Amino acid sequence: MSGTWGDATLETLGPDPRLARVADVPDLQTLSYEQAREELVEVVRTLEAGGTTLEESLALWERGEALAARCQEWLDGARATLDAAIAKDRGTEAGDGDAEEGAEADDD
User: Fold this and answer.
1) Cα–Cα distance between 77 and 59 in angstroms, integer?
2) Do 59 and 22 contact (CB within 8 A), yes or no?
3) Among 10, 57, 95, 98, which one has the highest count of C-beta atoms within 10 angstroms of its own C-beta?
4) Each residue's pLDDT tens digit, 40-57
5) CB 43 within 8 A of CB 60
């Protein structure tokens, strides 16, 4: 066996190929929000369906926690971007008013 995914068998993957070891799944930092969320949904479905061993359930739980944290990172980043844009917009509006007042003062 060459060790590639295509040559893997149920014996090398465990009882359920969907439950590949955490080390074998994509790095969390490479996942988009949508990818992380979709995988999290699948993890939850698998856990809710039952039928996994304790070891498999724990691995899925850990992966789910990591995926949830990754999703939260994306959401926090989006919130920070929106807050910065809003603050910049408000700063520009306030800055425009100050510039006009300053121009009027120079005319006196």
Assistant:
1) 27
2) yes
3) 57
4) 999 999 999 999 999 999
5) yes
